[in-house]
Amino acid sequence: MARMFRVLGFWTLVIGLMAYAGHMIEMAILFFAQTAVFVLLGYLNFSERTYILMFWGYMILSFAGFTYWSVFEMGMPF
Predict the structure, then answer these.
(1) Are the beta carbons of 45 and 2 closer than 8 angstroms?
(2) CA 20 to 30 Å from 23, out of 15, 39, 46, 49?
């Protein structure tokens, strides 16, 4: 399971680099920060249950943040 967090770090790095190449600096910084967290957690060797709980927490936080942003921060398309 620790290896999967390192894989998540790799893919968030790839997405961050593509965002940086596309001049989306805020998105790139967000994904570079996620890369650092995923790689750090991947080398801490927690138990599999801990990794699953951390991933669920990450998914709940990211979905709640995305929902908040898309409903309250983005304008209504008219």
Answers:
(1) yes
(2) 39
